[in-house]
Write a structure and sequence with these properties.
The chain is an alpha/beta fold. It has two domains: 209 residues, 3-Layer(aba) Sandwich (Rossmann fold); 117 residues, Response regulator (Rossmann fold, 3-Layer(aba) Sandwich). The protein is built from ten helices and twelve strands. InterPro entries: ABC_transptr_sub-bd_PQQ (IPR022478), BCAA_transport (IPR051010), Leu-bd (IPR028081), Peripla_BP_I (IPR028082).
């Protein structure tokens, strides 16, 4: 019987080259087709530029621990840019921070016009009230929305308010009211007020007087501490202030709390533990009101503090939080507005139902009568948060946050 294996093998050897050649031909024919398939279109990226205009010069402080960091405010804005881009990357949006720095006494108009020419449609302003007012109307005429992240002057929200200037920094009256509520809640109602001789010291002193009248405190005495220009951080200066402060406060009547208004950093740090009568100190020294506190960990604060510290090597300060909030407001509106049209973003921010989360226990909203952001006020010393205002029992028909600062019936703001 003849074996079939040799025949089968011969047939396989005959047809195998034909199959290989056919496969090669098919591959060659399909390769051009694969190469000719159109590539997927690249994702369209919309850039949203946010400017940061800051007036900066190295500042003196009574304590080296209180010298402001070089990147104060800017670091908060940069952190928020990263947060915005985390969400924006899914929507084809890219947020860019454009920082411009000037001296505190400089004319900011030329540099602001350059920022507008570069395409900055949202500008964070960390400048003086005078500088801000010099660019506010220029910004309005160019469709630019300004966020005031640094100036606490009430006049910017009142007599000199502008419809295109929104304020994420609290006012002096908000800070003073937050402090006064806590002192009244503690039943510490009798206060003495020591204020500095510079204009901003006297503005904060006036805010404290208003708060006393508003919440039932009584300022039983006042004294002005004049700035004579003496050395502040020398051995002889420390010895002198230790002797001078008890004498300076010796003639004050009995009181519960010493209020200090020293935004200029001339004497305030030297008041605690040096007064003639041993009493707690509050204001710009001792228990201080602020928009944020570096020790805050409530309401998710640990999360933002850790991210900020990892990126910047320090804890978050009030100006950092004000800048972070402003950038996040733009980001929140942009992600919910198709096309990132500046006019639509502006309208979204001004809508009645707009709010922003900022690790402060509740969503924050704007006061429509002067575009000040409602927000709690932190009360703390150099190491911990003591309390936050508004305090329990201080009620309001619209929002308890409106017990802090100028309320709508009191406002002098009249938008044109």
């Amino acid at each position: 019987m003849t074996s079939a294996v040799p025949g089968t093998l011969a047939a396989f050897l005959c047809f195998f080259p034909l199959a290989v050649n056919a496969s090669a031909v098919m591959a060659q024919e399909s390769a051009p087709q694969a190469r000719q398939q159109p590539a997927k279109p690249e994702k369209q990226i919309t850039e949203i530029k946010i400017g940061y205009l800051r007036a900066y010069a190295p500042q003196l402080a009574l304590s080296v621990l209180d010298v402001p960091p070089r990147d104060e405010g800017v670091a908060g804005a940069e952190t928020a840019i990263g947060d915005n881009n985390t969400t924006g990357s899914f929507l084809g949006q890219k947020f860019i921070l454009d920082v411009t720095e000037v001296k505190p006494d400089a004319d900011v108009v030329p540099v602001f016009k350059e920022m507008v020419e570069r395409g900055d449609r949202y500008v964070l302003a960390d400048i003086s009230a005078r500088q801000l007012l010099s660019i506010a109307d220029i910004a309005r005429d160019n469709g630019v929305l300004i966020f005031n992240v640094g100036a606490t002057d009430d006049v910017l929200r009142e007599e000199e308010c502008r419809v295109n200037v929104l304020h994420t920094a609290p006012t002096r009256t908000m800070l003073a009211d937050g402090l006064a509520q806590y002192l009244v809640w503690k039943q510490w109602r009798n206060w003495v007020l020591i204020y500095g001789s510079h204009e901003r010291d006297q503005l904060f002193a006036e805010a404290l007087r208003r708060a006393a009248t508003r919440f039932g405190g009584e300022i039983v005495a006042e004294k002005e501490f004049k700035d004579t220009g003496t050395a502040r951080r020398t051995d002889s200066g420390v010895v002198q202030i230790q002797r001078q402060m008890p004498v300076f406060t010796q003639d004050l009547p009995d009181h519960d709390v010493v209020l200090v208004a020293d935004e200029s950093e001339v004497f305030g740090t030297y008041v605690p533990f040096r007064t003639w009568i041993p009493r707690p100190v509050a204001g710009t020294a001792g228990l201080s009101p602020s928009a944020w506190h570096p020790a805050s960990e409530q309401w998710g604060g640990t999360q933002i503090q850790n991210r900020f510290a990892k990126a910047n090597g320090r804890r978050m300060l009030s100006k950092d939080m004000s800048a972070w909030t402003a950038v996040r407001i733009v980001g929140e509106a942009a992600t919910r507005t198709p096309g990132a049209d500046p006019a639509k973003i502006d309208a979204f921010i001004r809508a009645d139902d707009f709010s922003i989360a900022a690790f402060k226990g509740q969503k924050l909203t704007f006061r429509k009568w002067n575009w000040q952001l409602r927000q709690p006020i932190f009360l703390g010393d150099g190491r911990s948060v003591v309390s936050t205002s508004p305090q329990e029992g201080f009620l309001h028909q619209v929002s308890e946050l409106d017990t802090l600062g100028i309320d709508e019936p009191e406002t002098k703001c009249a938008f044109e």
